[in-house]
Amino acid sequence: MVGKQTVSVAVTPNGYADAVHQDRFVMPEERRMLFEDFLDVIERKRAACGVFYVQKQCSNLTQEFPQLLQDVDSHIPWMSEALGKEPDAVNFWLGESAAVTSLHKDHYENLYCVVSGEKQFILLPPTDRPFIPYELFQPAKYKVNKDGSFDVIDVQNAEKVPWIPLDPLNPDLSRYPEYSHARPLHCTVRAGEMLYLPSLWFHHVRQSHGCIAVNFWYDMEYDIKYNYFQFLDSVTKAMSTV
Q1: What residues have CB less than 8 Å from 174, skipping those under 6 apart?
Q2: What is the average pLDDT across 215-225?
Q3: Where are the domains of the chain?
Q4: CATH 2.60.120.10 for domain 2-240
Q5: Burial zone of 70 (CB within 10 Å; 0-12 exposed, 13-18 middle, 19+ buried)
Q6: Beta carbons of 232 and 130 less than 8 angstroms apart
Q7: How many Å separate Cα 217 from the centre of its chain?
Q8: What is the pLDDT of residues 86-136, one digit of tens each?
Q9: I want to staple 59 with a disulfide (CB 3.0 to 4.6 A). Which of 89, 174, 184, 224 is the partner?
Q10: Where does residue 17 rank: exposed (0-12), middle (13-18), buried (19+ CB within 10 A)?
């Protein structure tokens, strides 16, 4: 039974995993727990400190939820045919409404399928890179104490992480005035719907409580599109130092 399966759960105090907090790039506490215990938290049957989210992006559907494979296609046939390959990873997502994915981009062609509930995406094309700020941050992790409080613990001897400090829900235009030139798209994906999210597109994601989703990651081609983006990225970085 899937309820007896031990799975990886991201736990944060504020719902933001892999995000900038207090001048750190803070990753969640990764907790191993029975899936049925996680569901008790989601369904409010069990009190817990923090925000819980199954969101491990290591093809966790195949690695941690093998019982669900009979209910989910291993790939999307038309996409696999179009790209000439099968996905590198198939990920399962389930969490609380407070769980938010901060603005970022991925080097994957992404097919995002909502099974239950809905996801709210803010999308920005790669051409908006000059308007999207990046800064370098000390990496850290959340640690939950016995009293339920959270500490932020630096990852020792780790290189700084380039990340986007801007929150598109409440952008600080006094600090990042260039973002006023960006043209974000807002998209809601509901149960039974699929979003094609092209590689290198910036995205920020919210969800309804208990939303269930599966996404398919196909590795991008490092072709002329990637070269154009790298050129734009390099020019943007050079201009920021002038």
Answers
A1: none
A2: 96
A3: 2-240
A4: yes
A5: exposed
A6: yes
A7: 12
A8: 999 999 999 999 999 999 999 999 999 999 999 999 999 999 999 999 999
A9: 89
A10: buried
